[in-house]
Design brief:
The protein is 47% helix and 15% strand. It is an alpha/beta fold. It folds into three domains: 2-277, Rossmann fold; 304-411, Up-down Bundle (Four Helix Bundle (Hemerythrin (Met), subunit A)), CATH 1.20.120.640; 433-484. The longest helix is centred in the middle third of the chain and has 25 residues, at 304-328. The chain is globular. Bound molecules: zinc ion. Zinc ion binds at residues 27, 207, 232.
């Protein structure tokens, strides 16, 4: 099995610290709002990584933190007139609702900053003792120059960084690159007592303290979005290795950005899609399928049209599972087998191909292609069946069903009945959503065509007909959008 290790800048054979075990730490959200699509990608991807390691028989320990104390939280809580930790706990609850919808399993531990202050203080003390950090007026800074390996993850050279850095007004720092491990309390802000006076942790130190606490040094996988490589993860390495004197992490895995209508997601652009809003429009299975349909390191563009295409893909898989279950419900017969002998062999080969795709740096896009191949094989096989099922046919179909379930254990598009272990293929609130999206898209295209040909009567007839069905069209710079009233 090979994984792309950001620090090595290439794929490497995966060798865990301890045979048969994997420790994974993923940076979780800062809890001052509902999660957005950019948060959902690492959630779904690393959940799939965890599930695949389990599929391969590893004993996985999965840790994902909550940053429940930070400037953004304090500011937002101030605006709303509530305590910062009350705001955090509200959005942690909301996080769980969204994650559960997306079939993302709870981590083995979801550590919070506010519950790990003693661990953080102990680590900062160790850094000061080791001469890697210094204290100024109740603040503690990490001294970047004292850590020889600084820049090894992001590939940045500290000398270049210094030349390019903006003039830092904080003259108390020995170097503009030095970053805060502990911040002295400002009036009205939450604070904890420390050897340096009341204050709170800087952002980076929390992930070092919590990952080391639960996974130990030199743990297997640290994950997050590409945007965390610098400075967050670079700083985590510096703090952790300077404190313990041992390597911090074996494999760094980073997922690519999400764009919406080809614009990078940001609040200032106003395309800040909350998972909550997207789930109001699309079934969660489809969001999960869509997020996994592109390789995790590639950028992923999100728009309604691409979602519709993904919906058609997911529908194909669902239809095939349904046909398979219908065939298995046929009465038993003694007639000779309808399914040819090659079917079973091709199932074995699909299982191998699926694993090869996932073993190659978690290529979920390719693995989904294998699920489509399975759907095609099954559709062909069930067509050959007679009105009754011979024992040979039944065995072949059960094997195919087992394979669908195995693939679904990893991809987890469909929720599974906790009692029976069966896939809930009809759990989608609107099973026809992909089809509806596709059909309306086609009708809109036909109307555009009519307008292009100056066939105004026909174009208006389409618009009016849609309106009678409660669907209104709106011309936007990005093309025609539609929405359903009520
Ligand atoms: Zn982190």
């Amino acid at each position: 099995m090979e994984v792309y290790n950001t620090i090595a800048r290439r794929k490497q054979v995966f060798q865990p610290k301890e045979p048969g075990k994997v420790g994974i730490y993923v940076c979780g959200p800062t809890t001052y709002n509902y999660i957005h699509l950019g948060n959902a990608r690492p959630l779904v991807f690393f959940d799939t990584v965890r599930r695949y390691f389990e599929y391969k028989g590893y004993d996985v320990t999965y840790i994902q933190n909550f940053t429940d104390m930070d400037d953004k939280i304090i500011n937002r809580a101030g605006e709303e007139g509530i305590e910062p930790l009350a705001l955090s706990s509200k959005y942690i609850e909301e996080y769980y609702k969204d994650a559960d919808s997306l079939n993302v399993r709870r981590a083995d531990k979801h550590p919070k900053v506010s519950e790990h202050i003693p661990d953080i203080i102990a680590m900062v003390k160790q850094l000061v003792k080791n001469g890697a950090a210094y204290v100024v007026d109740g603040d503690v800074y990490f001294e970047v120059r004292k850590f020889a390996g600084y820049g090894k993850l992001s590939g940045r050279n500290p000398d270049d960084m210094k030349a390019g850095a903006r003039i830092d007004v904080d003259a108390r720092k020995r170097d503009p690159m030095d970053f805060a491990l502990w911040k002295s309390a400002k009036p009205g802000e939450p604070s904890w007592d420390s050897p340096w006076g009341p204050g709170r942790p800087g952002w980076h130190i929390e992930c070092s303290a919590m990952s080391l606490k639960y996974l130990g040094t030199n743990f297997d996988i640290h994950g997050g979005g590409f945007d965390l490589v610098f400075p967050h993860h670079e700083n985590e390495i510096a703090q952790s290795e300077a404190a313990t004197g041992e390597p911090f992490v074996r494999y760094w895995i980073h997922n690519g950005f999400i764009t919406i209508n080809e614009e990078k997601m940001s609040k200032s652009l106003g395309n800040f899609s909350l998972v909550r809003d997207i789930l109001a429009k699309y079934p969660p299975e489809l969001i999960r399928f869509f997020l996994l349909s592109t390789h995790y390191r590639n950028p992923l563009d999100f728009d309604d049209e691409k979602l519709s295409a993904a919906g058609r893909g997911l529908e194909r898989i669902r239809t095939s599972v349904r046909l398979l279950l219908e065939a298995l419900a046929k009465p038993a017969g003694r007639e000779s087998a309808g399914i040819d002998a090659d079917f079973s062999a091709s199932l074995d080969s699909l299982k191998g191909l699926f694993e090869a795709a996932m073993d190659d740096d978690f290529n979920t896009a390719l693995a989904i292609g294998i699920v489509f191949d399975l759907a095609r094989e099954v559709n062909t096989a069930v067509q050959r069946l007679g009105p009754a099922l011979s024992p040979v046919d039944r065995d072949a179909l059960l094997k195919a069903k087992g394979l669908f379930k195995m693939f679904n254990e990893v991809m987890s598009f469909f929720k599974v009945d906790p009692n029976t272990g069966e896939m809930l293929i009809d759990s989608v609130p609107d099973g026809g959503q992909g089809l509806v999206e596709g059909l309306i898209g086609l009708i809109i295209e036909m109307r555009q065509e009519a307008r292009k040909n100056k066939n105004w009567v026909f174009a208006d007839r389409i618009r009016d007909g849609l309106k009678e069905l409660g669907i209104t069209l709106e011309d936007t710079p990005q093309g025609v959008r539609w929405k359903k009233q009520g």
